[in-house]
């Protein structure tokens, strides 16, 4: 297990032990979205130095841990593919079932290129519904065209 | 290659040969979303009998092909995982990089359960932007709670 | 593609073209359960000679096809694992999430051994429910104990 | 090994060392089914705070362990696929041999959709039989229809 | 599909169509064991020229097919691993469950080396038993010691 | 590494350190076959309480270890597939080369069904031979017929 | 085999039969780089309508083939990973051996982000060298920074 | 985790804790390229004895660690394939999308052979660009022709 | 199946049908080693134009086939890994069992680098031996040192 | 990590720390080839008791380690396939590119059978060459014919 993955485990255990939740943690760390801060603590984004210091204080981490939180992580570590967890798997299923249609429709609308996963932002919200509340996800990624040369 | 996959190939070739596009095809088939019709023609949704007849007419398919379009397809056929196509891969990458954070935040907000990929709808739109237009995706899936028994 | 898989494809296409359904087909073939006959036509059980003749007649298959239906099939051909189809995948998910608990509880109740998947029968029924009908599945497999020697 | 998997190992070792069985443990933890409690202790369901406290007391776990038992687990961790254990494998074999038939019959009866693995319950019972007792499994999952939009 | 695999499919289809069985076929081909002849026709042993001629006559194969039956086959083609067929899988399961014990006991008895799978012979017999007949398999392989140099 | 796999490692190390062999150990543990006892100590069979106590004494294991030896193991743990060890691999090779022939011959002789790997016993013997001694393996498994319902 | 892959095979066979080379073909098709045109004919870029018409003329393809050349291809089809061909494998090896260092150095120089593989261009040249000519490759990809939101 | 991989982890943690960067480290170690030194510390090149001593001093490693840095590493350890990290994945994507074209063009220019990944050097530079700076990579590998014998 | 693989199949079938052997074929094609010519016909080396013409004549191939034989093949196509054929598998086993030792000894003798598989030649001979003839293989590959830059 | 793999790591670390080389070590252990002793210390051969004692003395191993060195190892542990290390990979590549030709030529010369990897020996030598020294490898394995029964 990499040092960064071990730190993710420590963060999850300490968060449980201390009774914290992600929204609280995000609010303490800074002004970015809870998605950014949760991802960062799970090893998918680097934190700025002061953010890392606050995270270390809140989650009872060492100075070495805080230093590690500021490094550029090896993204994707810690997410098994195909996902075994049903919540995460459903997104994988969406790709299997809709992925080729997304490609056809995005190419038809925008031409040859892709939606960036880097110049990208997203929100997750609760959508109240009498038949059962819904998870509402909004994604926006820059269209990047392939260029001839 | 399954009969349904072979039909998908035939549809793609005929669409190219006939110079059709998905939006036109969808508008001719009925009143559902282009995402539904594109997915259906790619083997991810069954069509109603009249829709299949219209598709067969438009895409120069046989009666047997039209019959096949009304059957319940084996979803997921025809999408290689991990996706080799960059446009489709970016969605896979989003799961690898954000999946565990999505899980943490959805569980924190809704409790133990998942976002349904069945009671689910979505839209893809062009989001004009001076720094380059963006692909905007909206998803909405019913939250399904695990129940104790 | 094996000759038997190609026959399965032919059966599925002809069934669609002829507008048949599995319950009708099963009723015509003999007195076993529709699960047996559907599985058999999908390449998971051999048919008796007369059953195969009736199937060939009903589904417009050749004599060679009928002969093939009476052979011992290579079971498991034609089902991709992990299943890409959401309906089939949910059973796979049940194993991932409950499999180890099933093992613990069956071993605790019966001792060291397994539930047979050979001396086994099952039913699938509709369970009416005001909150949405349910799929009810009943399985019964002989417990086979490991024996010391 | 994730912190939650390590806790599962600790639970299994302590259970063996203390001579406990799952039925006893379930009866002590609360009023849900032994399937729920066994799954939960194996990392497939979160426990309520008091349940976790009782589990920790019974199985000689620490407070941090108890906290971990109340978190939303990454389901599916700890079950190797394909299963190497014969008892668990037989369920996998059932999917390989019957899965496509289940799909055909459920789609034919209910239309386009799936059996939920979330809005789902099950029982495992001993079925006495002179030729050898049988394992009887009952499953019931809500049918979820795909909807057009 | 390789030419040899396609020939295996043709042999299986013709055997079914002609109503032949392996014991008959083996008796017609020559004096070796039915295991040898069945394996050979399934692409796991080369046949002698006259044996191939007899096989071609019996199974209605072409001269080119007969020539192909005399070539050194790429053994192992046509057997999916792990086996999806329950009968074949049980042998795979025996390796998973007993393989390391076989190693320990053979090494303890014979020293450092292996049982040859080349200088090897075997028989399969019916073992009558009032509690249900049994499949009796006898294997004998030369022990090959690793040598120092 | 699971607690049971770690115990297997400890058993192998202590056996080496104490200069024991499997035949001796088996003779001390009870009256079952050395195959059973070797497999059990490698994590493939549970031991009875007294057997586990004797094993713990002989191999210098702790009481917790002895308790673990009496639990129902997750069979198949600890055997990599395909096997990297040549001795174990040869059995895997036998399946690849002969598996489909075994299926054809057993189905032809017994009908539709399998050889049980549960109601199963086996022996390994030295077969003296002037050209080099041979490993002789005898297996006997109950034939289990598929039943119609 | 997808229709596009089959067309790639046809292009390679016709190119060989007609004695053409990629540089000639590229020069005839238009003003983009030979890398673009070679990739396009191998199914990795769409061609403009007139380019496709010229390619069809040159390589003796049908009108339907020409239409297919103008569609948005499923990139990555037709390249096995890991590559079995030594020339292609060496690039794979470079990633295995240098990939993590590239990441460290690019992140250190540019911050958190990636080199685009879409807004990307490259050249391949012969670098004369008395000790043996060298393959010189130049790549340039836009740096895309991850953005906070 | 191998001893060398564990040392890589230690190096990454100490580098973060000590606030060092790769360019500084490389400048202190010797006169080779930062790519060589970064790769070496990540386990992809051996260091000379004095270089290892300097690295150990700088990164607070033990004498045993320094000795390990001088050994011939098992290259490729520590880089998961396909890469989960987006920065590293983009290079993998380049192979999938361009690899077959590279092969065609290099073979056409140089004949039958490969570009060496051993007699190979490379540079990574920042290419200033008003539309966003670019990552510029130059690679040069000796062409190695296959020879007849 | 690629066009080149299909040609390999045709060559193997025609060779069997025409009763040719590789040594004869090699002698007719030119002056290189039978290893080169056998590999080339199996899709692992390009042939010169006249060699291809002779091969086409000898093996009754078409002009298009001959043209294909002169192209640069995608090496490695047609060899399944791990090899299912016992003869080929034994070489794979040698790597698994000796590969790390080869690395240690070659690095110790030559320094940091590899044995080239491109600037490489080999012979296979029969080594007569009263205890059973032996296969004698000689390989010689240029040592390629990694260079610092 | 198995106990034997952990011992291999310890041996590699101690060898580096103590500044030993394999030729020295081999000369101290006994009269077999350095290939045998290097392989044995890497977990691919058992050592005799006295050899293990000498190895333990030389490499500063414990008595338990020495005992472990005399056991029959699980060969193949510790060599990742496909090999990520370029030196080891080149042998893997040789199989991919030449394996089917080796099979054809050995079968043609010797008949149906294999080259033994057990009754096998080999040498690695430096072959001086003005164009760059070469690695010369000689292998000799007994031909083992398949026998009819």
Task: Describe the protein in words.
The structure is a homodecamer of 149-residue chains. With 149 residues, chain A is α+β, with helices and mostly antiparallel strands. In chain A, 50% of the residues lie in helices and 18% in strands. Chain A is built from 6 helices and 2 strands. A two-stranded antiparallel ribbon of chain A has the order 1-2. In chain A, a hairpin with a 6-residue loop joins strand 1 and strand 2. In chain A, helix 2 crosses helix 3. Chain A is globular and about 50 Å long. Chains A and B meet through helix 3, helix 6, strand 1 and strand 2 of A and helix 3, helix 6, strand 1 and strand 2 of B. Strand 2 of chain G pairs antiparallel with strand 2 of chain H, so a sheet runs across the interface.
Q: Give the helix tally of chain A.
A: 6
User: What characteristic shape of chain A results from the CA principal axes?
Assistant: globular
Mean pLDDT of chain A: 97
Into which percent range does the helicity of residues of chain A fall? Answer: 40-55%
Beta-strand percentage of chain A?
15-25%
């Amino acid at each position: 297990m990499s040092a960064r993955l071990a730190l993710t485990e420590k963060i999850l255990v300490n968060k449980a032990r201390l009774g914290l939740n992600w929204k609280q943690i995000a609010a303490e760390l800074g002004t970015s979205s809870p998605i950014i801060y949760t991802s960062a603590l799970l090893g998918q984004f680097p934190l700025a130095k002061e953010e890392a210091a606050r995270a270390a204080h809140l989650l009872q981490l060492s100075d070495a841990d805080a230093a590690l939180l500021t490094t550029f992580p090896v993204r994707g570590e810690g997410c098994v593919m195909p996902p075994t967890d049903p919540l995460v798997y459903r997104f994988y299923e969406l790709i299997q079932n809709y992925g080729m249609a997304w490609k056809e429709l995005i190419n038809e609308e925008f031409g040859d290129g892709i939606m960036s996963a880097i110049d990208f932002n997203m929100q997750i919200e609760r959508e109240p519904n009498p038949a059962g509340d819904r998870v509402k996800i909004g994604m926006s990624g820059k269209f990047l065209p392939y260029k001839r040369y």
